[in-house]
């Protein structure tokens, strides 16, 4: 059977069964190393920041000990660069023996002992992006079994060094292989990000039947420019992307860089606000040992997390865009709404903004809404549908409002 017919065959098989692992009914929350710790393998000079069991255990300790876990941040994951340069004698992936002396099973056990879940990384190709052993087509079942035996709860499958036809075969095949292990393993696919993120090359119906989350676009980097570019891409392509998301399957605009080096406080607010409105996975990539109180306060904001984890799982949309302001709206359960007003200006002082519930297209409750400023933790007032809601939005800043119906 050629690769192509095999792909079609698996595509059809996936269509009948659809991804039905019951996982990630709300966007996943947790921590991943990649944006912050990259492929730092130099444990002799930088023992606290190299990719190692020491780092993963330290982050698990922080997640469990510093209030993260009880708010829902439960995944602690590996990304690239955890592996030894070669598979073992039985052909299985194995960790670098110096950086992971206890092995991955013991590490997953440690993470589970903290009440957390453990994620791992591989790449559908001969090697990973950083040239460690990957998962080519003929290793998919072996690797799925290995991950299940280790107690893995989430697999991110990257897409370096394989072509489109291999991806079309491999991503569904790994989904099937994970299912057949009998262990519930959430499945994160980088597939669309390697295909430009848009139809006709990307079939979002098939993705939703194959994966629990998927990276659509560029990697996050530690800068406002990259963050704003990613936000704009999700807005510009929302007609395709927004309907693809829902309980069990999420668009993934990549990791939170709050607590790192590149964003101001106002810009950090933009990322948390937009990620909540986009129903995006909340995976932090920062050093939880040294994170500032300010950054922690943003990421641990209970109303923000309530919005992110809303049970309807509807991704928000950008409803207006002018020279300075973008308005994003997400409908929530029980007639509630989240509205983010983003000021993309880079000059001057906080800019006044005025709207009404009606102008936002929020008419559901004729008696009006209580409105809260989520990130300042302020009650803004009670507003009838035509009452003017005013605010000021800092340059490269945001106001995130939560509207609760009086009905
Ligand atoms: C595998 O797929 C079947 C059919 O969709 C589903 O009922 C089952 O729960 C899945 N098992 C796991 C472990 O994901
Ligand atoms: C894709 O890669 C596979 C495996 O390396 C190869 O056999 C196949 O010919 C490639 N297909 C295309 C269209 O390049
Ligand atoms: C996308 O995938 C779905 C599910 O496999 C399939 O029914 C549909 O025909 C595909 N759409 C296109 C345009 O190929
Ligand atoms: C803000 O967005 C508008 C509309 O896309 C654009 O014209 C303007 O250049 C942007 N401003 C900045 C500072 O990025
Ligand atoms: C709100 O304003 C619109 C337009 O001015 C008007 O038609 C409508 O009756 C007003 N609604 C309420 C509840 O005041």
From TrEMBL:
Listed A to Z, the keywords are: Disulfide bond, Glycoprotein, Glycosidase, Hydrolase, Lipid metabolism, Lysosome, Signal
Answer yes or no on keyword Hydrolase: yes
Matching PROSITE patterns, A to Z? ALPHA_GALACTOSIDASE (PS00512)
One Pfam family cited in the UniProt record for this chain: Melibiase_2
Q: Which residues form the signal peptide?
A: 1-18
Q: Cellular location of this protein?
A: Lysosome
So what EC number does this one have?
3.2.1.-
Where does this protein chiefly localize?
A: other
Question: Could you provide one GO biological process annotation from this protein's UniProt record?
Answer: glycosphingolipid catabolic process
Record-annotated Alpha galactosidase A C-terminal domain positions: 313-397
Listed GO MF terms: alpha-galactosidase activity
Catalytic reactions of this protein: a globoside Gb3Cer (d18:1(4E)) + H2O = a beta-D-Gal-(1->4)-beta-D-Glc-(1<->1)-Cer(d18:1(4E)) + D-galactose; a globoside Gb3Cer + H2O = a beta-D-galactosyl-(1->4)-beta-D-glucosyl-(1<->1)-ceramide + D-galactose; Hydrolysis of terminal, non-reducing alpha-D-galactose residues in alpha-D-galactosides, including galactose oligosaccharides, galactomannans and galactolipids
Subunit comment for this entry? Homodimer.
Name of the protein: Alpha-galactosidase
Print the organism lineage.
Eukaryota, Metazoa, Chordata, Craniata, Vertebrata
């Amino acid at each position: 059977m050629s690769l192509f017919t095999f792909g079609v065959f698996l595509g059809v098989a996936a269509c009948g069964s659809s991804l039905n692992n019951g996982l990630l009914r709300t966007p996943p929350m947790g921590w991943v190393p990649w944006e912050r710790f990259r492929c730092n393998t130099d444990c002799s000079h930088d023992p606290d920041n190299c990719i190692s069991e020491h780092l993963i255990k330290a982050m698990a300790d922080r997640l469990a000990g510093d209030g993260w876990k009880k708010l829902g941040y439960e995944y602690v994951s590996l990304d690239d660069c955890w592996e030894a340069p070669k598979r073992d004698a039985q052909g299985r992936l194995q960790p670098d023996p110096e950086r992971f002396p206890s092995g991955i099973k013991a590490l997953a056990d440690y993470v589970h002992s903290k009440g957390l879940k453990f994620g791992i990384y591989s790449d559908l190709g001969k090697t990973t992006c950083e040239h460690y052993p990957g998962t080519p087509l003929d290793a998919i079942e072996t690797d799925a079994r290995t991950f299940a035996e280790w107690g893995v709860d989430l697999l991110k499958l990257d897409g370096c060094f394989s072509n489109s036809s291999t991806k079309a075969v491999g991503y569904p095949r790994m989904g099937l292989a994970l299912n057949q292990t009998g262990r519930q393993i959430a499945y994160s696919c980088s597939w669309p990000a390697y295909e430009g993120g848009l139809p006709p090359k990307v079939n979002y119906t098939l993705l939703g039947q194959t994966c629990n989350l998927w990276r659509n676009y560029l990697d996050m980097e530690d800068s406002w420019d990259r963050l704003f570019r990613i936000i704009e891409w999700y807005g510009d392509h929302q007609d395709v992307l927004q309907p693809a998301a829902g309980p069990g399957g999420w668009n993934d605009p990549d990791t939170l860089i709050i607590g790192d080096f590149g964003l101001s406080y106002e810009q950090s607010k933009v990322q948390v606000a937009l990620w909540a409105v986009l129903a995006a996975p909340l995976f932090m990539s920062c050093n939880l040992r040294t994170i500032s109180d300010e950054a922690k306060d943003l990421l641990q904001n209970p109303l923000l997390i309530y919005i992110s984890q809303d049970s309807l799982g509807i991704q928000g949309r950008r409803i207006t865009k002018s020279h300075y302001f973008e308005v994003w709206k997400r409908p929530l359960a029980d007639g509630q709404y989240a509205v983010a007003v983003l000021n993309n200006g880079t000059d001057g002082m906080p800019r006044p903004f005025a709207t009404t519930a009606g102008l936002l297209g929020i008419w559901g409750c004729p008696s009006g809404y209580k409105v809260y400023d989520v990130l300042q933790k302020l009650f803004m007032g009670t507003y009838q549908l035509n009452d003017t809601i005013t605010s000021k939005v800092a340059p490269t800043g945001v106001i995130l409002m939560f509207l609760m119906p009086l009905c």
